[in-house]
Predict the 3D structure of the following.
Amino acid sequence: MAVIRDVIPAFELFQPTSVDDALSLQSRHGAKAWVLAGGLDSFDWFKDRIKRPEVVIDLSQVRELRGVRAAGEGLEIGAMTTLTEVVRHPMVREKFSILPTAAEAAASPQIRNQGTIGGNVSQDARCWYYRGGWPCYRAGGNICYADTPTGLNREHAILDADRCVAVNPSDTAPALIALDAKMVVRTPKGEQVVDAENYFIGPATDITRMTILKPGDLLTSIRIPSTWAGAQFYFEKIRDRAVWDFPLVNVASAMVLSGNTIQRIRLAVNGVAAHPVRLTAVEAAVTGKPRNEETAEMAGQLAIQGAEPLQYNGFKVPLLRNLVKRAIRGAAA
Amino acid sequence: MNLIQWATSPWGQQVPIHISWTLLWVAAISALAFLIVHALYVSIWARPAHAQASAGASAMIADKIPERVPRHNLSARLFHAIMALSMLALLFTAFLPKVGVQFPWVTYHWIAGIVLSISVLYHIFDVFFYQDFWSIWPDKIDIEDAQSRVKRALGQSAPEPRKFAKYPLENKLYHLAVMLAGLSAICTGLFMMKRVHTPIFTRNPYLFSDMTWGWMYVLHGLAGVGFVALVTVHIYMAVRPEKFFITKSMFLGWMSREKYLEHYDPRRWPVTGQPPPAGAVAGDAESKKAPA
């Protein structure tokens, strides 16, 4: 098991002041470079001496990556914008209140002051076998220690597991999917704009990555279109410790009603798979239905179709079902 | 360069986890180099491989040889097609992600592996009971003729090599390599299915020790990159003009009498139902040039 040490291994530190410089450094150093945002994921890796990058590219001095800007009727949030800024920004609170709610739930105030929205959506899995430096699939090995007869997997996946059963721990990710956000990624080939739900990848596609970002790529901003501005939002996070913790399961929904009928809805959950899961089948099933207990019950049952619990995380199945039910019913119900 | 990637197991043991994926490029580049060298050799330096049948003997034999000489029956051709498709599926699903094409490959990979395994089982059954089992194994004549061909290629005196049996020595050695790599990949692959969720096996990642699993992954990987080279060379040989009549026979099931008499020894590969008279052909040849 890894032991946290006081001194992290030496690396060469670069602090670029522009995105172009950051990309140039990434291009020059390739896979040897580690991109540092708020550091809350990175420094754990470094202190445990499990990740030993030769080069660290600290984005904290890149001003163009910070801040919330109006973009048409929507918003553009720089990837280095802190969670606190997201939580407090009046435009975000006014139009897309689900995002501040999710960002606030992500961590303690101190962590929110340091952690960035780009880092929150791009953070690595928190499976302790993986974080402990064991040679599991995600670390390039050939076994998932959490998915063994004796594996401790209370926090692990119940959906879409493919060899690795780690989950994505982001709270803002399902909120961004519910808002139909677009992730703006700069690659060596140019700018790429990706739907939030396609930004995340599961182990079936690449077992060593959580997002589409490859060495040399950089998430620069997140665009939130006006499509869901002012919709009825629901976010709920279940965690072991209320003060701050990673989600056992969280749910985010954006819903537009016509009277009591669900006109359109986007619904996503996290903590149940290696990527946030948009529940498109549930969305399709409840669209056009009245917002009531019956619809909520049906949505909850549909959400858990295909769930495969491990030894110790069977509780996540009813938890997911109930959270989806509550998201459909809404806070007022 | 480390040919094998090692890791420290939770018990502090150094265990192999898989091959270095650099070997994929080594295999691909080696195959490409072979293609280039072979193409140059054939076009510039190749000497006559063996003597050809004399006109008289050919005429005598030709009377007994049908226009279309049956070479691969439908069963063998179907096996080859299924095996080829599953092998290509296995290679693409295994190695496209390694070169940056990301997709959910595992399910496709094990399904293709199951298809390959069943087709190989069928092939083994077929050759044991319905085909000429020994026709694909190198024999004494193959070795003697290979020695003669090498000596002649080096300018030394040696007896003229005879014409081929149904399969030339190169074919036989290729089959041997494919068989070894294939059985390695299939056996390790079937065990590796115990590590992933499939409807076929109950998952048991602790079936073997980390060390045994590690070597299994290494062997599977070596067989896989070996197949990159083997399949590349196979496709190259299949499209070479002077070999194309063999490729055609894999699709049509037969080759022409002319090609049969030109390249094969009817005593070593008697056409079914048309056995030639003993001593009628090989050795009493009129030489024609054919590449090695």
In short: Residues 52-57, 275-292 of chain B have pLDDT under 50 and may be disordered. Chain B touches chain A at residues 5, 7-10, 15, 17-18, 97, 102-107, 195-197, 203-206, 210, 213-214, 217 (CB under 8 Å). Chain B has nine helices and four strands.
